[in-house]
Structures are given as C-alpha cells and as structure tokens.
Specification:
Layout lengths: L12 H21 L6 H11 L4 E2 H8 L3 H13 L3 E5 L7 E5 L1 H4 L2 H15 L5 H22 L7
Antiparallel strand pairs: 1-3, 2-3
Length: about 160
C-alpha cells in the first residue's frame, strides 16, 4: 500500500518529468541550431572533460551525475563521433581514462553559447533571488533523495 500523502500538499512528480522532457527538447534544439550534434548528456560529459580530461570513467560518472552504464553507452557515442577517446591508464590497466579529441575541444564555444542561451530562456522574467531560491530548493530535494539512497553508486 502506498504511503499516505500529507494533507494539503500537492506533489509535482509528473510536472517534474514533463519539465525534464522540455529541458531535453530545448537543449537539443539549441545544440542543433548551433551546429552541434550532441545531446544534453553528451554535452555534460564534454563540458566536464573540458575542465580537465584524462579522468577515469567512475570519476566522470560521479562528476556528471550519470550512472556508470549510461555513461559507458554515452561515451561509446562520443567515441564514434570522434569527440572523445579512451586510453588505458598507465598506473592501473583495469581503468580507462577518457580524453577529448581536438574535434571535441573545438565544440566548447558553440556548446557554451547554447547553454547560455538555454539559461536565458529558462530564467526569463526571474529575479536573481528567485533563481537562487530555485537552486536551493533543488539542492535540498537532491539531498533528501541522496540521503534516502544512502550514497549508493549512481545516486549522485
């Protein structure tokens, strides 16, 4: 039997799912209009690698908030597109390190422009105070879910 709902509270679960769908569609459209053939998940990996590549897949998964299986599939696509490549670690042959190709590095300015345009669209009409309050609410919700999951891999 499902847990009882607190009286007077309305939970936005379906609205959040729809919101996430709209984010993905908006980001895809903005990337495409900027000449980028990447998805939101792929861009998150590229952006993280631009901060410093040569990191292992487990660390990359943690930094991007993707589970390892999904990250591996997404990396396969980035490798096929020749935007990234994997190389075996010199210190631990069981680990693959991920690097950007020159083609992947060249996407930085177009991806940055698309993400900035997305932010302008998303927060149009919002004050900085409202944006900060929204960010705080997301952080609290995330913390609640991470606490429930007990720090399990992929919970981030």
């Amino acid at each position: 039997m499902p847990p009882a709902r607190k009286p007077g509270l309305r939970y936005p679960r379906l609205k959040l799912a729809y919101f996430n769908k709209l984010i993905n569609l908006t980001m895809t459209r903005l990337f495409r209009s900027g000449g980028l053939d990447v998805t939101r998940e792929q861009e998150a990996i590229l952006r993280e690698l631009l901060q410093g590549d040569g990191i292992n897949q487990a660390e990359l998964a943690a930094r991007t908030g993707q589970d390892r299986n999904n990250l591996s599939r997404t990396l396969d696509l980035l490798v096929r597109k020749r935007l990234a490549y994997r190389d075996v670690s010199d210190t631990d042959r069981r680990q693959s390190l991920v690097f950007l190709t020159d083609k992947g590095k060249a996407l930085e300015s177009a991806a940055y422009a698309a993400v900035n345009q997305y932010r302008e669209i998303l927060f149009a009409g919002f004050s900085q105070r409202e944006v900060d309050a929204f960010a705080l609410a997301i952080e609290r919700l995330t913390s609640n879910l991470e606490s429930f999951l007990g720090g399990q891999p992929g919970a981030r």
